[in-house]
Write a structure and sequence with these properties.
The protein is built from twelve helices and 19 strands. The protein folds into three domains: 122 residues, no CATH class; 201 residues, Alpha-Beta Complex (Ribonuclease Rh, Chain A); 114 residues. Strands 8, 9, 10, 11, 12, 13, 14, 17, 18 and 19 form a ten-stranded antiparallel β-sheet that branches. Strands 1, 2, 4, 5 and 6 form a five-stranded antiparallel β-sheet that branches. A two-stranded antiparallel sheet has the order 3-7. The chain is of the alpha+beta class. The N terminus is likely disordered. One of its GO terms (cellular component) is extracellular region. This is Ribonuclease T2-like. Its EC number is 4.6.1.19.
Length: 516
């Protein structure tokens, strides 16, 4: 029988989670989970915990949302009175229609038709649990759930054109919550995967990147601190880790590359927009979604645990994760080591107030071998190979092996590098490429976090759906089919990313390996 989840862990914002009993995190993390602000109470609320749930809702949801909606029309006294009435309503001491009337009159925000809808709804409310009653009221009042998006559509599932793109995620309609299992070096707790990012892929599996240079920030920590999100920062500092111990750089990269491409986080989609509040939303949503996806516990429940000797079949790992998520996930490996999981979602409504709906990957489901997958423990003691007496120390890394960057050179001058999709970029962070000896003969293969690399229809690309192409090195430069010369339409400028081709074009470019 699956273990009962820790009560401190809030549920994922996804709809209809496959198995709530599997949602547990290690004990040392569960205490932190409860500290993250704006996390809704667990589904156990209302079963003998009415007072506690009422207080939680007032503090974490109702008061904050009410203060936002009434800020420009209501005095401080008005807010206090409104909050008191909401508190009494949640304790079943006043009927919902009385509270509705008070709020509507004081704010002047809703029409008589909205009031009538609320009264009809209130008449159907009987002696239900506090949170259920609160949800019924708040849904009609327009506070936490899809209030500005009546009849929201689900991304990538719509059959008609969405009229309001602040209520519909497009073109990035498939949201991916991605997680790392870093062991070289190790990051995060020994019994927890860590957050990689929250990515808005297109419905066909392609994606945009760096969508709004004006909203690319270099001060994520400062933005969160200015918003009072110290608990969120503490959480991220434990579970959203960079392997080079530069968490801020990773957070900036994830927001700038992916967060700016989530259309429902654009400033125009916020009433009374406050500078950079969409950044706060991005990290809160990512952290909250991650909380409901405890990969370590899911695998552990299926008997899949880190080991220095045991190996696993891909089907074992996929079956365990699919049973929890309700759909297959993408699983990535590096040199036979399990190291990344991507959970896919569609979103009903906008990303802030909508529902995350588990979805299947588009295209491939990763690049791991079918058998012999190693799930390596974190923080293993370092080992070294003795050097024979009188011999020179062996090099720790050879060109085009292990992890490194592909630096671009044109006219003998370094002009940027290749990023994860295989495109050429001159102003951003270089992607980490993993080179491995080709099992089928000479040469080596390349991969990034986006997937295996190959030349497809004459274009160098890295994607989950790619086969692993074979590359070689000529005088230190990357070569394909014996040629170390690649081409592009131009040298990229600013935020442009350009395809790299094997067909003759305006600019010749070569790529040189830089070990990480």
């Amino acid at each position: 029988m699956p273990p009962t989840p820790h009560p401190e862990l809030p549920p994922s914002p996804s709809a209809n989670p496959p198995s709530p009993t599997s949602r547990r995190r290690p004990a040392d993390e569960a205490a932190r989970d409860g500290d993250l602000p704006h996390v809704p109470p667990s589904s156990g609320c209302g079963r003998g915990y009415g007072l506690l749930c009422a207080v939680s809702w007032v503090l974490h949801t109702v008061f904050l949302q009410l203060a936002t909606s009434l800020y420009n029309t209501c005095s401080f006294l008005c807010l206090l009175v409104s909050s008191l009435f909401i508190f009494l309503f949640l304790l079943h001491l006043i009927p919902s229609w009385a509270l509705a009337g008070l709020i509507l009159i004081m704010s002047g925000r809703y029409s008589l038709s909205a009031l009538w809808s609320l009264l009809v709804s209130a008449s159907a409310v009987t002696a239900t649990a506090g949170p259920a009653r609160a949800n019924n009221f708040l849904r009609f009042l327009g506070l936490p759930q899809n209030a500005a998006c009546p009849d929201p559509m689900t991304s990538c599932q719509n059959t008609t054109v969405a009229q309001d793109l602040c209520c519909f995620n497009a073109p990035g309609g498939q949201l991916l919550l991605t997680q790392f299992w870093d062991t070289t070096p190790s990051t995060g707790p020994e019994n927890s995967w860590t957050i990689h990012g929250l990515w808005p892929d297109h419905c066909d599996g392609t994606y945009d990147a760096y969508c709004d240079p004006a909203r690319e920030y270099k001060n994520i920590t400062a933005i969160l601190e200015a918003s009072g999100k110290t608990e969120l920062l503490d959480y991220m500092s434990t579970f959203w880790k960079d392997y080079q111990n530069d968490d801020e750089n990773l957070w900036e990269h994830e927001w700038n590359k992916h967060g700016t491409c989530i259309n429902t986080l654009e400033p125009k989609c916020f009433d009374g927009y406050q500078g950079q509040e969409e950044v706060v939303n991005y990290f809160e949503i990512a952290a909250r979604t991650y909380m409901g996806l405890n990969s370590y516990a899911i695998l552990e429940d299926a008997g899949i645990v880190p080991s220095t000797t045991k190996t696993y079949d891909l089907a074992q790992i996929q079956d365990a994760l699919t049973a929890f998520h309700g759909h297959p996930v993408s699983i990535a490996c590096t040199e036979g080591r399990l190291d990344e999981i991507w959970y896919h979602f569609h979103v009903r409504g906008n990303i802030v107030t909508g529902d995350f709906v588990p979805a299947a990957p588009v295209g491939g489901k990763g690049d791991c071998a079918a058998t012999g997958i190693r799930y390596v423990p974190k923080n293993l003691p370092a080992t070294s190979t003795p050097t024979p007496s009188g011999a020179a120390p062996a090099p720790t890394r050879t060109p085009y092996s292990g992890e490194g960057f592909l630096q671009a050179y044109t006219g003998g001058v370094n002009k940027g590098c290749l990023i994860a999709a295989g495109t050429w970029y001159t102003t951003g962070t270089c992607a980490t490429y993993t080179a491995a000896k080709n099992d089928f003969g000479a040469g080596f293969t390349l991969k990034t976090n986006d997937g295996p690399c190959d030349v497809v229809d004459g274009i160098f690309s890295c994607s989950i759906g790619n086969p692993a192409g074979t590359f070689t090195s000529v005088d230190g430069s990357l070569a394909y089919e014996g040629s170390a010369v690649f081409y592009a339409a131009a040298v990229p400028t600013r935020t442009k990313q350009l395809d790299v081709s094997t067909s003759v074009d305006n600019v010749e470019v070569s790529f040189v390996w830089e070990a990480r």
